[in-house]
Amino acid sequence: MELEIGIEDLLRKSKVESSRIEFKAGWNPDDIYHSICAYANDYNNEGGGYILVGVEEKNGVAARPVKGLPEYMLDDIQKEMVGYNNVISPAYFPRPVPMEVDGKWILVIAARTGQQRPYKAPDYVTGKKDKKYYYYIRYGTSSVRANTEQERELIAMTDQTPFDCKANHKATFADISPVLLEDHLRKTGSKLAKQVGERGVEAILEEMQLLEGPPRLRYIQNVALMMFCEHPEKFFRYTYVQMTVFPEGSIKNPSLSEDYPNITGSVP
User: In this structure, are residues 104 and 66 in contact, taking their beta carbons and an 8 Å threshold?
Assistant: First the structure.
């Protein structure tokens, strides 16, 4: 299993907003699941985020070399997560990806926007009984308990999946360009770039968490069509850039203008 973005970019926070990345020196599920819940709620519609376990933070950036996790813990943590995922209400399943960095192992937890938001998490997922549940959101670079007003906004977001994350029922995997997909993954430094030709578009989009629906009936999310379809206007009518030039200035002489041909194609 691979990430859709290079691990070095995550560690440097170079291609993802800092609010979408959190470093954790060790495995502390009570704390980490508050962040998982916050990313699943995606209060600011940023697309979720990444939690890097085994990485210490120093002045807002990753301390190198990374602290790392004992290799034997990787399987144990992933087994524990199955139970904790079902404790979130409703159940939510982030994607854990073990990665080797600086000669040590870390665990990257990719938590995208949940399709059944809003989500609640207990104050202690490790608690045995009498769990108290709360909504969590991202506030800047921290995961915090939502206040009363924020709770109301979260509840109002029920079934309001961001357009980018919605499944497109008209598209097929033939609409995805392997060339555009591979080019994107190469630019983001993902190891998945070398696997597009061998494994195929569907498998790679699955790894990138860009598919929706049951295993036998998978649908492509809108964002994948915007990014990797050569003719996204098939699905999104206004997918183009329109340019008008005012040679003498739009204020001085707005009646004199020239329209350029529309720029079409994938969003990048």
Answer: yes
Domains parsed from the chain with CATH numbers: 7-161 (3.30.950), 167-245 (no CATH)
Contact indicator for 102, 66 with CB cutoff of 8 Å: yes
| pLDDT of the chain, 268 residues: tens digit per residue | 678 888 999 999 887 888 899 999 999 999 999 999 999 999 988 889 999 999 999 888 899 999 999 999 999 999 999 999 999 999 999 999 999 999 999 999 999 988 888 999 999 999 888 889 999 999 988 999 999 999 999 888 876 777 888 899 999 999 999 999 999 999 988 999 999 999 999 999 999 989 988 788 899 999 999 999 999 999 998 888 999 999 999 999 999 999 999 999 998 8
Sign of CA dihedral 242, 247, 249, 252: negative
Distance between first and last Cα of the chain: 25
